[in-house]
Amino acid sequence: MSWLRNVRNKIASITKKETPDNLWHKCKKCEAMVFLKEYQDNMHICPKCDHHGRIGPDIRFTHIMDENSWERLPFASVKEDPLKFKDQKKYTERLKDARTKTTEQDALINVAGTIESVPCVVGVQDFAFMGGSMGLAVGQAFVDGASRALQDQCPYIIFTAAGGARMQEGILSLMQMPKTTVAISMLREAGLPFIVVLTDPTTGGVTASYAMLGDVQISEPGALIGFAGQRVIENTIREKLPEGFQTAEYLLEHGMIDMVVHRKDLRAQLAHIMGYLMAWKTAA
């Protein structure tokens, strides 16, 4: 049977060479196998079940911003590892790994540009960077984005995606909650819109601060949105919670957000909302 084993090994070798690992994408919801190119061309949305996959800043900016209209804002320098934190690894090593993996400095990236010719500043949290967690760098990036919107007299749009506060920065991470809230107050005093787009997942301290303080609260379909996990809440209140109570659709039904918008419609919807909220400036 050695000849059969040899033939089988050769077939396996040929198949492996002709079908690289990055040829297919497995949907996390329906588990359908989709050609990666088809998935990417469909804005990282499963063509079988319409599940919206997680995407990073560069892809998001490409989807949302006018072509060649946007520029990245410089990333402010903050004190790294202020608590000299170490668990299984040093915090500095975790930062280094995240930067290598994502090629980003930290979890929140801002750009200034236009959406359907409407000037705006857009921030995107990258869940791939330590779960999009909020630390000193994210807090400062948020303030920088709001400051640029104030300077340009335009709306600030934030796409949230986070597991919450960054535990490696302890109380300093929690201090970013009031810090970002003050920046939002400055936008409100100037009459400039602050628009939040909740993406999967948005949880923890981010939900407890700027993620739920928008003048308009939008979400992508199926996004997980909440503060604590379902099991934690059930153990605390000792009651069974409704199925899917932390999904975007459930929050919309119960008045927690204003609208759920498909990714393909989001660009036009944002332009429409900004045009409406900035009408006072055009009239002046």
Can you characterise this structure?
The chain is α/β, with parallel strands linked by helices and 284 residues long. It folds into two domains: 20-51, no CATH class; 54-283, Alpha-Beta Complex (2-enoyl-CoA Hydratase, Chain A, domain 1). Helices cover 41% and strands 16% of the residues. It contains twelve helices and nine strands. The strands form two sheets. Strands 3-4-5-6-7-8-9 form a seven-stranded mixed β-sheet, sandwiched between helices. A two-stranded antiparallel ribbon has the order 1-2. Helix 5 packs parallel to helix 7 (176-189). The longest helix is centred in the N-terminal third of the chain and has 17 residues, at 2-18. The chain is globular.
How do the strands and helices of this protein lay out in sequence?
Elements: H1 2-18, E1 24-26, E2 33-35, H2 36-41, H3 57-64, E3 71-72, H4 91-102, E4 108-115, E5 118-125, H5 136-152, E6 156-162, H6 170-174, H7 176-189, E7 194-202, H8 204-207, E8 216-219, H9 230-237, H10 248-253, E9 259-260, H11 263-277, H12 279-283
Parallel strand pairs: 5-6, 6-7, 7-8, 8-9
Antiparallel strand pairs: 1-2, 3-4, 4-5
Helix pairs in contact: 5-7
